[in-house]
């Protein structure tokens, strides 16, 4: 229930879409402990939003037309090429996939070592993308009627929210999050599952769990 209201509220997981319905659960959202997690995907309580509240992308106004695009860093180009390679693989375009994989490796080797990296800075950049980056680019794509870009941005934002969820959990739990447990990644959408018992289907893209790959030993 929201502050000042007695009406039950439904809260939506921004990672997998799980719905916490106060009316059904009989426990007000505010009374759940701060370390409560999404029972479907493990996202933190902070990754939930009240039903009907925009996640941020839909309400941003388009930036001014004269806004200049920043040049991509070598690491960003490497990540872009890597994503394009995966897209080509899914479309069975092996030669293009190999070419983009090679480009990703080359650009990755050009990036200078970051000397001031920190967990806090990474989370800060992720939050900046979700709060301002995605809303601005989505607004421009809608303005231009670019449906392809909007589809790509939908999944990009989803993956970024997955990353934020993992970073938030790690900030709360530290190394205990990865102790005596397994890590799996969905090969279709990139969802990362931390736990020993995989769900039957991916919480995000709903493919069967045999599409998950185990990370590390």
Give a brief description.
The chain is mainly α and 217 residues long. It has helices at 22-25, 74-90, 94-110, 119-144, 147-173, and strands spanning 10-13, 19-21, 48-50, 183-186, 192-194, 212-214. The protein is 42% helix and 9% strand.
Number of domains: 4
Radius of gyration: 19 Å
Q: What would the principal axes of the Cα set say about the shape? A: globular
Count of helices? 5
Order of helices and strands: EEHEHHHHEEE
Proportion in β-strands: 5-15%
- How far is it from the N-terminal to the C-terminal residue, by CA? 43 Å
Number of strands: 6
Unreliably modeled segments? 56-62
Helical content band: 40-55%
- In spatial order, strands of the major sheet run 2-1-3
Strand pairing plus helix content: what structural class?
mainly alpha
Biggest sheet layout: 3 strands, antiparallel
Mean pLDDT: 83
What structural keywords apply?
Rubrerythrin, domain 2, three-stranded antiparallel sheet, 5 helices, 6 strands, 9% strand, Rubredoxin
Protein architecture, described:
This protein has 217 residues and is mainly α. The protein folds into four domains: 7-54, Rubrerythrin, domain 2 (Single Sheet), CATH 2.20.28; 73-112; 114-179; 180-216, Single Sheet (Rubrerythrin, domain 2). Helix content is 42%, strand content 9%. It contains five helices and six strands. It has helices at 22-25, 74-90, 94-110, 119-144, 147-173; strands at residues 10-13, 19-21, 48-50, 183-186, 192-194, 212-214. The protein has a three-stranded antiparallel sheet with strand order 2-1-3. A hairpin with a 5-residue loop joins strand 1 (10-13) and strand 2. Helix 2 packs antiparallel against helix 3 (94-110) and helix 4 (119-144) runs antiparallel to helix 5 (147-173). The longest helix has 27 residues, at 147-173. The radius of gyration is 19 Å and the shape is globular. The model is unreliable at 56-62 (pLDDT under 50). It comes from Aristaeella hokkaidonensis. This is Rubredoxin.
